[in-house]
Amino acid sequence: MANSLILSYLPRGSVVHKLTGTTKLIVFLLFSVATMVTYDTRVLVVFLVMSLAIFKISRVHYRDVKLILWMAFVFLLLNNLFVYLFKPEYGVEIYQSRTLLVQLIGPYTITAQQLFYHLNMTLKVVVVIPLALVFILCTDPSEFAASLASIGVSYRIGYAVALALRYIPDVQRDYHNINQAQQARGVDISGKDKLMDRLKGSANILLPLILGSLNRIEVISNAMELRGFGKNKRRTWYAKRPFATRDRVVLILGAVIAIGSLIFTFWDGSRYYNPFI
């Protein structure tokens, strides 16, 4: 059951785990901003190698994030599909050239420039996904909240994010328990039943899940109110850790890489790398 949980903190004791939450958050933001800004394929390929290397040393396994990766894959397919449907020659506009490969129906064509644009667009998402998963799965929710507060985010927001991350595994456990209880009563939502029967079975699970979630929210909010949460403008964090040498080294290295990538990207005055010139 532990490996089936989505976005649940995994204490694996890797080098990434030993970094403070603030360090991981700042480095993740630096890489995310640099990745979103650039359309230079060379930079994106380097970032992809680094992202996969960080994922490897974090000791997060494929089985831990299999469902998330499949969801991201479906999102990528839909994103590329809709971009192509609404802008079938957007790459031609960007790269100021047109190399026709296949003529389809009406305005829809397949050009080398459009394919290259979709490649870059896909790379940008593929680079960020492993970094986001590593950051979430290798950072304790309480330390995550402390890291948000350390960069100036209101501790109320940070605490809400931490509670949401802690609550996701609880919702999954509740769903699994309710599902098992419904199956024990003869309700089957597997692929063997008809679609309508599966939808009705899912509704029988969702209703107690929602009611249980609302009850848990009320209990937590009452407990926080009784303890005077939100009374003061600032608060201390039990999970906050002081910066170590490795944190300073990683921050400096991350800043150098991010700034260097932006300089390399805009060296010729454009953020698009154009191999068709």
From TrEMBL:
Location(s) in or outside the cell: Membrane
Membrane topology, as annotated: Multi-pass membrane protein
Pfam families listed in its UniProt record: CbiQ
Keywords: Membrane, Transmembrane, Transmembrane helix
Keyword Protease: no
Transmembrane segments: 25-55, 67-86, 115-137, 144-168, 249-267
CDD domains in UniProt: EcfT (cd16914)
Classification via InterPro entries: ABC/ECF_trnsptr_transmembrane
Keyword set includes Isomerase: no
Name of the protein: Energy-coupling factor transporter transmembrane component T
Lineage of the species this protein comes from: Bacteria, Bacillati, Bacillota, Clostridia, Eubacteriales
